[in-house]
Amino acid sequence: MKILLADDHDLFRAGLGMVLGELEADTQLLQAASLTDAIECALAEPDLDLALLDLNMPAMNGNAGLQQFRTQFPQVPVHRIRLG
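^ that's the sequence the OP posted. Answer follows.
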């Protein structure tokens, strides 16, 4: 399983990454700190199984950023992350 985790908080990515790594032995976790980084990562890894995106990170602009990602990568299931 290949998962993209996009959040601008390093500690959150590290913690959730540890949990996600326990899902399956062959889980590959890709990380991004902004929407721009997430898009670049998704372009480089066209076989993503899941993208987890923080709504409040650089270049994200909330739901508009989420829609931008979904439009560009319609084959990737996306789940939004909202902290606080």
